[in-house]
Write a structure and sequence with these properties.
This protein has one domain. By secondary structure, it is mainly α. The protein is about 60% helix and about 0% strand.
């Protein structure tokens, strides 16, 4: 099963610029972590600026949040990607044992 960040969110601005098919479980876990960080940033920003709705500024901030989230996840982020990848590898190796 493969997914991209853009396929998990309905907003056209939610797609990370370099998101594509993950190469392996670790890459998929990093993409997932970037998505989660991006959603956390977006949620925090929406709570902060709920009364001001500037679509151009909002789009630019969404893009900045997405890029920041991707960079954070690529550099270890919150540690979710490592935990997910380890769990997937453990499940995969235990499934291969007879």
């Amino acid at each position: 099963m493969s997914f991209t960040i853009s396929s998990l969110h309905s907003s056209p601005t939610a797609a990370a610029p370099e998101a594509g098919k993950p190469k392996d479980a670790a890459d998929a876990a990093r993409q997932f972590e970037a998505l989660m960080i991006g959603e956390m940033l977006r949620s925090a920003r929406e709570a902060e600026t709920d009364d001001e709705k500037d679509s151009t500024g909002s789009t630019m901030l969404d893009m900045a949040d997405q890029q920041f989230a991707k960079m954070l996840a690529d550099r270890g982020g919150l540690g979710l990607a490592n935990m997910i990848a380890k769990s997937l590898k453990a499940q995969s190796s235990s499934a291969k044992k007879p």
